Amino acid sequence: MPVDALYRDDFYLSTAEAEVTTIHEDGGIELNRTCFYATSGGQPGDTGFLERADGTKIALAQTKHGATKDIIIHVPLEGEPQPLVGEKLTLHVDWPRRYRLMRMHTACHLLSVVCPYPITGAAVGEEEARVDFDMSETIDRHEVTGRLMELVNQNHPVYVQWITDEELIANPGIVKSKNVRPPLGLGRVSLVCIGRDSSVDSQPCGGTHVSETQEVGAIHIAKIEKKGKENRRFRIRFGAPGAEA
Ligand SMILES: [Zn+2]
């Protein structure tokens, strides 16, 4: 039975009840359902803890996919108690961390609107996100910050529209990532839309995002690095622009 990945339909679900279905030899835990996001598409998997009926906690080091996207493995920290197959657990995502990742991830989408170039790589972190673009132009980071904050302050709605794998394959133009494959293989693809009727952007993405751009808060471009003739690496950080070069 594929896991019911609850976060795909509710980015704000931080807790849920679930049952253990499999324990891997290395201690990895599979559940029948989960609100823990598994590492993919440049967004790190969730941490947090699983609570047993007697109140003891199993702290998680990370959450990752198995051989397919239908498998989600909750990896406990070393030395944590091991639950039994069939045991019922209450799941608790480390919400402050996840929410920062959601804000930063949404900021990456906004950057792809301001810089409409093909994306060759991206990594979302709690403090910083980096996005690599296939571009040779030189662009002023303060100007990019200004345009990003405009989009944040306009408070556009962010929502998901589900399309079929076939619809995505028939419309390859909506994919901005060159090397990052769209989240195919589930039979349906989540299209992340920004603005009323996707007036700002729409992009296939399986990550988690905030529900309106204002939630991203203050962000700025800390650095634009030249990585080869046709590659620019942008670093987004939280807060107002500081003294970074
Ligand atoms: Zn996304």
Automatic annotation (TrEMBL):
* Keyword line: Metal-binding, Zinc
Instruction: Give residue ranges for domain Alanyl-transfer RNA synthetases family profile.
Output: 1-245
Per the database entry, which stretches of residues form a coiled coil? none
Pfam families, per the entry: tRNA-synt_2c, tRNA_SAD
Q: Which cofactor does it need?
A: Zn(2+)
- Major place of localization? cytoplasm
Q: Where is the protein situated, by its record's location annotation? A: Cytoplasm
Q: Is Repressor included in the keywords of this UniProt record? A: no
Q: Which PROSITE patterns does the record cross-reference, listed alphabetically? A: AA_TRNA_LIGASE_II_ALA
- Under what name is this protein listed? Alanine--tRNA ligase
Tell me which species this is from. Answer: Neorhizobium petrolearium
